[in-house]
Amino acid sequence: MPVTDTGVNNARGGPVGYSRRPNPVFSSEYGHVRHVLIEARREAGVSQRALAARLDKAGSHIAMIERGQRRVDLLEFCRIAECLGLPAEELVRRIERRLRAAQAASAARESLARAS
């Protein structure tokens, strides 16, 4: 059965018609998670390497998260918050605020586009 080419994240050099599903790590929504983590780390005055060391991870681990090359699972998210001296709930609230603001902005743009 042939796979429909969606044009999203096409793999180069693979079979004709082969496409990958979009990677949620690079979604705009996950970008808000990354932004909140970066902002919280900077507010705490902690370098990427120092945070990685606190998490007992390789020095590049946090850089990969912040660039969107690695996802954060729930347990790691909680440990990151703890290492930054914040309750995980606070980071979740910040993410929720950013997501709501982005949704409101998107709805406003759609409304303006329809009115034009």
Q: How would you portray this structure in words?
A:
The chain is mostly helical and 116 residues long. The chain has one domain (24-115): lambda repressor-like DNA-binding domains (434 Repressor (Amino-terminal Domain), Orthogonal Bundle), CATH 1.10.260. It has 5 helices and no strands. It has helices at 28-43, 48-54, 61-67, 74-83, 88-115. Helix 1 crosses helix 5. The longest helix is centred in the last third of the chain and has 28 residues, at 88-115.
Described by strand count, sense and barrel closure, the largest sheet is: none
CATH superfamily label: lambda repressor-like DNA-binding domains
The residue fraction in helices comes out at: 55-70%
List low-pLDDT spans: 1-14
Q: How many angstroms separate the termini?
A: 43 Å
Secondary structure class reads: mainly alpha
Radius of gyration: 18 Å
CATH architectural arrangement:
Orthogonal Bundle
The number of distinct structural domains comes to: 1
Mean pLDDT rating: 84
Give the strand tally: 0
